[in-house]
Amino acid sequence: MFRLLRLKPPHGWNAVAWELAIVTLGVLVALAAQQTVEALHDRSTAAETRADVTDELNSNLMSMVLRQSSEPCIERRLTELRAIVTQWEKTGSFETPRWVAQTPVIEIELSRYDAARLAGRLALLSGEEQYRMGAVVARIRKFDEWQIQERVPWGQLRALQFGPDALAVDDRARIRGALQDASTFSYEARINAAQALPMARRYGFKPDEKGFREMAMEVWPGGRFTPSICASIDTSPEEANKKVMIPLPL
Fold first, then answer.
1. Measured between alpha carbons, how far is 83 from 229 in angstroms, rounded to an integer?
2. Residue at 88 is within a domain
3. pLDDT tens for each residue of 126-137
4. Is position 69 within any domain?
5. How many domains does the chain have?
6. If pLDDT is split at 50, 70 and 90, which confidence band does 210 have?
């Protein structure tokens, strides 16, 4: 027969219970402290992410405002080019334009938003904040896609600067198509900005005019936004390119 051994702590079971309670309480305090530190860190990271992404989106919205301001110049140039192509189709010749130009390509940067998304920092924001940022970003991306794609038709339209003698009859259809594409992109850009800017304001974002003024002095003479397409179609390329401080003029 085995005899059951009765364990008896030296100081009694009450002392053991007390020690276990102290240890448990210590563990719980440590866990609570750790959770508090993590919560404070997440809150700080969320605030930093919110500020960084907001600054980036506001800067991009300013780019859309600048594009809006140049639309009258773009539409005037498209009207002039339509008249030139129509003259070419009717007479087989046209008056050579000196400056067809290019729509302003205004920088769009979403690296902060993309980095925050990939790192999971956006998940620290509320679902509503994530939705609002995502909606604005989608509009900005579409705007950037259009302004990149429209470089191609405007590059084709600049062939008119060579004059009718340098172009073949077959070039007429290609340039007519480029003119239509350029008009379509211009229309899409106007619609996008007209919808995106009011939506962004409703969601708490607004164009960063201060940031633009700080940057403008490095890009445009006198710090005033002066896209080269606003120069007259009779302007020499040398004079038109002076309107924008770019290393490789058109």
1. 17
2. yes
3. 999 999 999 999
4. yes
5. 1
6. confident
Give the structural domain span for 42.
Answer: 13-96+107-205
- Per mean pLDDT, which range of 142-151, 180-189, 237-246 is the poorest? 237-246
Residue 90 belongs to some domain of the structure? yes
* Domain-located, residue 147: yes
